[in-house]
Design a protein that fits this description.
3 strands; 17% strand; three-stranded antiparallel beta sheet; globular; alpha+beta; 104 residues
Amino acid sequence: MSHTELILKNPRTDKLKAVPLGYSWTVMFFGFLVPLWRKDWKYSLIFFLIYALSIGSLTPVMAYYYNRLYALELLRRGYKLFNIQGHISPHELNKLRSKIPDLA
């Protein structure tokens, strides 16, 4: 479980989404079902294809990247940073500043 979450808000609908940062243990154990459950159709298809072609051996790699990919996808869809919950290292904060203009 991640100790840090980004709270993103859709400015049109005011819907909030909590996006954990760090390694996704849920993807590690449930694979492509996690993006499917989050209605992230693009990455559920990509992860399913990767899972099928690698016979599951790349699941740890997918788990490493998924939370970051999901957050960036929501930002591309128009979600804005609403809040950060939890502990965040200065190094991680600098990486986020380069990706999220609201943090600058």
